Amino acid sequence: LGDLLNRFTQRHRQPAHASRSTSPEPTMNELLEALALDQFVPYFQPKADLLTGAISSAEALARWRHPVRGLIPPDSFIPLMEHHGLIDQLTEQIVAKTAFAWRKWDSEGKRYEISINLSLSSLSNPGYAARLSSILEGNDIAPSYIVFEVTESAAMSDLPHSLENLARLRMKGYGLSIDDYGTGYSSMQQLIRIPFSELKMDRSFVTAACKDNAQVLVLASSLALARELRLRSVAEGVETAADWRLLRRLECRYAQGYLIGKPMPQSDFLDGVALWDAAYLALPSDVRADP
Ligand code: C2E
Ligand code: MG
Ligand code: MG
Ligand code: MG
Protein backbone atom coordinates (compact mmCIF):
# COMPACT_ATOMS: atom_id res chain seq x y z
CA LEU A 1 0.00 0.00 0.00
CA GLY A 2 2.84 2.39 0.92
CA ASP A 3 4.42 1.85 -2.46
CA LEU A 4 1.18 2.40 -4.36
CA LEU A 5 0.59 5.55 -2.31
CA ASN A 6 4.06 6.87 -3.10
CA ARG A 7 3.74 6.33 -6.81
CA PHE A 8 0.34 7.92 -6.78
CA THR A 9 1.30 11.05 -4.87
CA GLN A 10 4.40 11.49 -7.05
CA ARG A 11 2.33 11.49 -10.18
CA HIS A 12 -0.59 13.26 -8.64
CA ARG A 13 1.33 16.28 -7.35
CA GLN A 14 -0.73 19.15 -8.64
CA PRO A 15 0.14 22.75 -9.31
CA ALA A 16 -0.72 24.81 -6.25
CA HIS A 17 -4.14 26.42 -6.21
CA ALA A 18 -3.96 30.09 -7.07
CA SER A 19 -4.13 32.16 -3.96
CA ARG A 20 -7.42 33.98 -3.75
CA SER A 21 -6.13 36.99 -1.87
CA THR A 22 -3.37 37.95 -4.29
CA SER A 23 -4.83 37.02 -7.68
CA PRO A 24 -7.09 39.56 -9.34
CA GLU A 25 -10.65 38.60 -10.23
CA PRO A 26 -10.81 37.35 -13.80
CA THR A 27 -12.58 39.70 -16.18
CA MET A 28 -15.44 38.70 -18.44
CA ASN A 29 -13.08 38.70 -21.42
CA GLU A 30 -10.66 36.38 -19.66
CA LEU A 31 -13.50 34.01 -18.84
CA LEU A 32 -14.75 34.08 -22.43
CA GLU A 33 -11.25 33.40 -23.72
CA ALA A 34 -10.82 30.51 -21.29
CA LEU A 35 -14.10 29.03 -22.55
CA ALA A 36 -12.98 29.43 -26.16
CA LEU A 37 -9.61 27.81 -25.37
CA ASP A 38 -11.23 24.89 -23.54
CA GLN A 39 -9.39 25.60 -20.28
CA PHE A 40 -12.16 24.35 -17.96
CA VAL A 41 -12.04 20.68 -17.09
CA PRO A 42 -13.89 18.40 -14.70
CA TYR A 43 -11.97 16.75 -11.88
CA PHE A 44 -13.61 13.64 -10.51
CA GLN A 45 -14.07 12.88 -6.82
CA PRO A 46 -15.09 9.31 -5.97
CA LYS A 47 -17.97 8.31 -3.72
CA ALA A 48 -17.96 5.00 -1.84
CA ASP A 49 -20.78 2.73 -0.72
CA LEU A 50 -20.70 2.67 3.10
CA LEU A 51 -22.00 -0.92 3.11
CA THR A 52 -19.34 -2.44 0.87
CA GLY A 53 -16.59 0.16 0.53
CA ALA A 54 -16.90 -0.04 -3.27
CA ILE A 55 -16.67 3.06 -5.46
CA SER A 56 -19.42 3.18 -8.03
CA SER A 57 -19.83 6.90 -8.54
CA ALA A 58 -18.07 10.24 -8.69
CA GLU A 59 -18.78 13.95 -8.73
CA ALA A 60 -17.48 16.14 -11.57
CA LEU A 61 -15.99 19.35 -10.12
CA ALA A 62 -14.91 22.16 -12.42
CA ARG A 63 -11.31 23.41 -12.46
CA TRP A 64 -9.72 26.14 -14.54
CA ARG A 65 -6.38 25.05 -15.97
CA HIS A 66 -4.88 28.51 -16.22
CA PRO A 67 -1.69 28.64 -18.33
CA VAL A 68 0.00 31.03 -15.90
CA ARG A 69 -1.84 30.83 -12.59
CA GLY A 70 -2.13 27.05 -12.52
CA LEU A 71 -5.20 25.21 -11.30
CA ILE A 72 -7.95 27.57 -10.17
CA PRO A 73 -10.76 26.27 -7.91
CA PRO A 74 -14.44 26.80 -8.82
CA ASP A 75 -15.22 29.25 -6.03
CA SER A 76 -12.97 31.74 -7.86
CA PHE A 77 -14.87 31.62 -11.15
CA ILE A 78 -18.35 30.03 -10.82
CA PRO A 79 -19.98 33.04 -9.11
CA LEU A 80 -18.39 35.34 -11.74
CA MET A 81 -19.62 33.17 -14.58
CA GLU A 82 -23.10 33.24 -13.10
CA HIS A 83 -22.84 37.01 -12.84
CA HIS A 84 -21.72 37.44 -16.48
CA GLY A 85 -24.25 34.98 -17.88
CA LEU A 86 -21.54 32.47 -18.89
CA ILE A 87 -22.45 29.62 -16.58
CA ASP A 88 -24.51 27.72 -19.18
CA GLN A 89 -21.50 27.57 -21.49
CA LEU A 90 -19.34 26.27 -18.66
CA THR A 91 -21.90 23.60 -17.75
CA GLU A 92 -22.10 22.45 -21.37
CA GLN A 93 -18.33 22.01 -21.50
CA ILE A 94 -18.29 20.15 -18.18
CA VAL A 95 -21.15 17.90 -19.34
CA ALA A 96 -19.45 17.12 -22.67
CA LYS A 97 -16.10 16.37 -20.98
CA THR A 98 -17.79 14.26 -18.34
CA ALA A 99 -19.44 12.26 -21.11
CA PHE A 100 -16.04 11.79 -22.72
CA ALA A 101 -14.57 10.51 -19.42
CA TRP A 102 -17.54 8.21 -18.92
CA ARG A 103 -17.01 6.61 -22.34
CA LYS A 104 -13.27 6.26 -21.74
CA TRP A 105 -13.84 4.38 -18.46
CA ASP A 106 -16.63 2.37 -20.08
CA SER A 107 -14.19 1.25 -22.77
CA GLU A 108 -11.99 -0.08 -19.94
CA GLY A 109 -14.91 -2.02 -18.49
CA LYS A 110 -15.74 0.45 -15.69
CA ARG A 111 -19.10 2.15 -15.45
CA TYR A 112 -19.50 4.96 -12.95
CA GLU A 113 -22.48 7.07 -12.14
CA ILE A 114 -21.40 10.70 -12.36
CA SER A 115 -22.89 13.73 -10.60
CA ILE A 116 -22.80 17.12 -12.29
CA ASN A 117 -23.45 20.43 -10.50
CA LEU A 118 -26.05 22.80 -11.93
CA SER A 119 -26.49 26.47 -11.15
CA LEU A 120 -29.91 27.64 -10.11
CA SER A 121 -29.61 30.55 -12.53
CA SER A 122 -29.52 28.09 -15.46
CA LEU A 123 -32.69 26.38 -14.36
CA SER A 124 -34.81 29.45 -14.99
CA ASN A 125 -34.24 29.10 -18.78
CA PRO A 126 -37.13 27.26 -20.36
CA GLY A 127 -35.79 24.37 -22.42
CA TYR A 128 -32.63 23.99 -20.33
CA ALA A 129 -33.42 20.39 -19.41
CA ALA A 130 -33.86 19.57 -23.10
CA ARG A 131 -30.48 21.10 -23.91
CA LEU A 132 -28.66 19.15 -21.22
CA SER A 133 -30.25 15.88 -22.20
CA SER A 134 -29.52 16.43 -25.88
CA ILE A 135 -25.78 16.83 -25.11
CA LEU A 136 -25.82 13.61 -23.10
CA GLU A 137 -27.90 11.70 -25.64
CA GLY A 138 -25.55 12.94 -28.38
CA ASN A 139 -22.75 11.37 -26.37
CA ASP A 140 -24.57 8.07 -25.87
CA ILE A 141 -24.82 8.21 -22.09
CA ALA A 142 -27.89 6.58 -20.57
CA PRO A 143 -29.69 8.92 -18.13
CA SER A 144 -29.37 6.37 -15.33
CA TYR A 145 -25.62 7.13 -15.16
CA ILE A 146 -26.03 10.85 -14.55
CA VAL A 147 -27.17 12.73 -11.44
CA PHE A 148 -27.67 16.49 -11.40
CA GLU A 149 -26.88 18.27 -8.13
CA VAL A 150 -28.59 21.51 -7.18
CA THR A 151 -28.35 23.50 -3.99
CA GLU A 152 -31.77 24.18 -2.57
CA SER A 153 -32.84 27.76 -2.32
CA ALA A 154 -35.90 29.88 -1.79
CA ALA A 155 -35.70 30.90 -5.45
CA MET A 156 -36.52 27.37 -6.52
CA SER A 157 -40.03 27.36 -5.22
CA ASP A 158 -40.71 30.78 -6.77
CA LEU A 159 -39.70 29.85 -10.27
CA PRO A 160 -42.03 27.64 -12.23
CA HIS A 161 -39.30 27.14 -14.86
CA SER A 162 -36.89 25.68 -12.29
CA LEU A 163 -39.52 23.22 -11.15
CA GLU A 164 -40.34 22.31 -14.73
CA ASN A 165 -36.70 21.79 -15.72
CA LEU A 166 -36.04 19.62 -12.69
CA ALA A 167 -39.19 17.58 -13.26
CA ARG A 168 -38.26 17.06 -16.91
CA LEU A 169 -34.77 15.86 -16.06
CA ARG A 170 -36.20 13.42 -13.54
CA MET A 171 -38.81 12.20 -16.03
CA LYS A 172 -36.05 11.50 -18.53
CA GLY A 173 -34.47 9.23 -15.93
CA TYR A 174 -31.65 11.42 -14.61
CA GLY A 175 -30.99 11.46 -10.88
CA LEU A 176 -31.57 14.68 -8.96
CA SER A 177 -29.66 15.48 -5.82
CA ILE A 178 -30.06 18.19 -3.21
CA ASP A 179 -26.54 19.45 -2.64
CA ASP A 180 -25.26 20.87 0.66
CA TYR A 181 -28.43 19.83 2.44
CA GLY A 182 -28.88 21.63 5.72
CA THR A 183 -26.93 24.79 4.93
CA GLY A 184 -29.39 26.83 3.00
CA TYR A 185 -33.07 27.04 2.60
CA SER A 186 -34.45 23.70 3.66
CA SER A 187 -38.10 23.30 3.10
CA MET A 188 -40.13 20.15 3.42
CA GLN A 189 -42.50 21.62 0.84
CA GLN A 190 -39.71 21.70 -1.67
CA LEU A 191 -38.52 18.22 -0.83
CA ILE A 192 -41.95 16.88 -1.52
CA ARG A 193 -42.77 18.92 -4.64
CA ILE A 194 -39.56 18.35 -6.55
CA PRO A 195 -38.90 14.73 -7.51
CA PHE A 196 -35.41 14.52 -5.98
CA SER A 197 -33.73 11.13 -5.79
CA GLU A 198 -30.86 11.93 -3.45
CA LEU A 199 -30.11 14.00 -0.35
CA LYS A 200 -26.53 15.12 0.08
CA MET A 201 -25.60 16.06 3.64
CA ASP A 202 -23.41 19.14 3.81
CA ARG A 203 -19.85 18.77 4.99
CA SER A 204 -20.49 21.02 8.00
CA PHE A 205 -23.10 18.53 9.32
CA VAL A 206 -20.69 15.67 9.07
CA THR A 207 -17.82 17.58 10.66
CA ALA A 208 -20.03 18.83 13.50
CA ALA A 209 -21.48 15.39 14.22
CA CYS A 210 -18.06 13.88 14.53
CA LYS A 211 -16.81 16.52 16.95
CA ASP A 212 -19.87 16.96 19.11
CA ASN A 213 -22.23 14.25 20.29
CA ALA A 214 -25.21 16.59 20.48
CA GLN A 215 -24.83 17.31 16.76
CA VAL A 216 -25.19 13.63 15.89
CA LEU A 217 -28.90 14.08 16.37
CA VAL A 218 -29.07 16.68 13.58
CA LEU A 219 -27.33 14.39 11.13
CA ALA A 220 -29.35 11.37 12.27
CA SER A 221 -32.66 13.18 11.80
CA SER A 222 -31.70 14.32 8.29
CA LEU A 223 -30.79 10.75 7.43
CA ALA A 224 -34.10 9.58 8.84
CA LEU A 225 -35.86 12.13 6.63
CA ALA A 226 -34.00 10.82 3.59
CA ARG A 227 -35.13 7.29 4.42
CA GLU A 228 -38.69 8.40 5.00
CA LEU A 229 -38.81 10.17 1.60
CA ARG A 230 -37.02 7.21 -0.03
CA LEU A 231 -34.09 9.39 -1.09
CA ARG A 232 -30.61 8.02 -1.38
CA SER A 233 -28.30 9.51 1.25
CA VAL A 234 -24.78 10.79 0.63
CA ALA A 235 -22.47 12.47 3.12
CA GLU A 236 -19.89 15.07 2.05
CA GLY A 237 -16.61 15.80 3.78
CA VAL A 238 -15.80 12.30 5.03
CA GLU A 239 -12.21 12.80 6.08
CA THR A 240 -11.43 10.20 8.74
CA ALA A 241 -12.10 6.58 9.62
CA ALA A 242 -14.10 7.90 12.58
CA ASP A 243 -16.39 9.83 10.17
CA TRP A 244 -16.83 6.63 8.16
CA ARG A 245 -17.70 4.61 11.25
CA LEU A 246 -20.24 7.16 12.45
CA LEU A 247 -21.99 7.44 9.07
CA ARG A 248 -22.14 3.67 8.82
CA ARG A 249 -23.69 3.48 12.24
CA LEU A 250 -26.26 6.12 11.21
CA GLU A 251 -27.03 4.09 8.07
CA CYS A 252 -26.02 6.71 5.56
CA ARG A 253 -25.53 4.95 2.21
CA TYR A 254 -22.68 6.77 0.39
CA ALA A 255 -19.62 8.73 1.48
CA GLN A 256 -17.61 11.39 -0.37
CA GLY A 257 -14.52 13.07 1.01
CA TYR A 258 -10.77 13.16 1.33
CA LEU A 259 -10.71 9.82 3.17
CA ILE A 260 -11.88 8.12 -0.03
CA GLY A 261 -10.18 10.44 -2.50
CA LYS A 262 -9.70 14.05 -3.53
CA PRO A 263 -11.01 15.36 -6.84
CA MET A 264 -8.64 14.01 -9.55
CA PRO A 265 -8.15 14.53 -13.26
CA GLN A 266 -9.74 11.86 -15.44
CA SER A 267 -6.36 10.26 -16.16
CA ASP A 268 -5.74 9.58 -12.44
CA PHE A 269 -9.20 8.42 -11.46
CA LEU A 270 -8.84 4.66 -11.94
CA ASP A 271 -5.56 4.69 -9.97
CA GLY A 272 -7.32 6.68 -7.26
CA VAL A 273 -10.04 4.02 -7.11
CA ALA A 274 -7.42 1.26 -6.79
CA LEU A 275 -5.69 3.17 -4.03
CA TRP A 276 -8.92 3.50 -2.05
CA ASP A 277 -9.75 -0.19 -2.57
CA ALA A 278 -6.42 -1.07 -0.95
CA ALA A 279 -6.79 1.54 1.81
CA TYR A 280 -10.31 0.31 2.59
CA LEU A 281 -9.11 -3.23 3.18
CA ALA A 282 -6.45 -1.86 5.51
CA LEU A 283 -9.01 -0.05 7.69
CA PRO A 284 -9.53 -1.60 11.14
CA SER A 285 -12.19 -4.28 10.90
CA ASP A 286 -14.48 -2.53 13.40
CA VAL A 287 -14.69 0.41 10.98
CA ARG A 288 -15.84 -1.88 8.18
CA ALA A 289 -17.81 -4.50 10.11
CA ASP A 290 -21.52 -4.35 10.82
CA PRO A 291 -22.28 -2.41 14.00
P1 C2E B 1 -19.96 21.02 -3.89
O1 C2E B 1 -20.76 20.61 -5.07
O2 C2E B 1 -20.63 20.97 -2.57
O3 C2E B 1 -18.66 20.13 -3.95
C1 C2E B 1 -17.98 19.66 -2.81
C2 C2E B 1 -16.78 20.50 -2.50
O4 C2E B 1 -16.18 20.01 -1.31
C3 C2E B 1 -15.68 20.41 -3.56
O5 C2E B 1 -15.00 21.67 -3.60
C4 C2E B 1 -14.76 19.33 -3.00
O6 C2E B 1 -13.44 19.42 -3.49
C5 C2E B 1 -14.83 19.65 -1.54
N1 C2E B 1 -14.55 18.48 -0.72
C6 C2E B 1 -14.82 17.19 -1.02
N2 C2E B 1 -14.47 16.36 -0.02
C7 C2E B 1 -13.93 17.13 0.95
C8 C2E B 1 -13.38 16.84 2.24
O7 C2E B 1 -13.30 15.69 2.69
N3 C2E B 1 -12.94 17.89 2.98
C9 C2E B 1 -13.00 19.19 2.53
N4 C2E B 1 -12.52 20.14 3.31
N5 C2E B 1 -13.52 19.49 1.30
C10 C2E B 1 -13.99 18.48 0.52
P2 C2E B 1 -14.67 22.39 -4.97
O8 C2E B 1 -14.25 21.37 -5.98
O9 C2E B 1 -13.75 23.51 -4.65
O10 C2E B 1 -16.07 22.95 -5.44
C11 C2E B 1 -16.71 23.97 -4.73
C12 C2E B 1 -18.12 24.20 -5.22
O11 C2E B 1 -18.11 24.76 -6.54
C13 C2E B 1 -18.93 22.91 -5.35
O12 C2E B 1 -19.41 22.53 -4.10
C14 C2E B 1 -20.01 23.36 -6.32
O13 C2E B 1 -21.05 24.02 -5.64
C15 C2E B 1 -19.29 24.37 -7.19
N6 C2E B 1 -18.97 23.74 -8.49
C16 C2E B 1 -17.94 22.94 -8.80
N7 C2E B 1 -17.98 22.56 -10.10
C17 C2E B 1 -19.10 23.15 -10.62
C18 C2E B 1 -19.72 23.15 -11.93
O14 C2E B 1 -19.28 22.53 -12.89
N8 C2E B 1 -20.88 23.89 -12.07
C19 C2E B 1 -21.42 24.58 -11.03
N9 C2E B 1 -22.57 25.27 -11.26
N10 C2E B 1 -20.88 24.59 -9.79
C20 C2E B 1 -19.72 23.89 -9.59
MG1 MG C 1 -21.97 19.16 -5.62
MG1 MG D 1 -21.99 19.83 -1.86
MG1 MG E 1 -20.55 22.79 -1.18
Automatic annotation (TrEMBL):
Identification of the protein by name: EAL domain-containing protein (Putative c-di-GMP-specific phosphodiesterase class I)/FixJ family two-component response regulator
Superkingdom of the source species: Bacteria
Keyword annotations: Phosphoprotein
Record keyword Phosphoprotein present: yes
Location of the EAL domain: 24-277
Full-sequence range covered: 121 to 411 of 420
GO biological process: phosphorelay signal transduction system
Single GO molecular function: cyclic-guanylate-specific phosphodiesterase activity
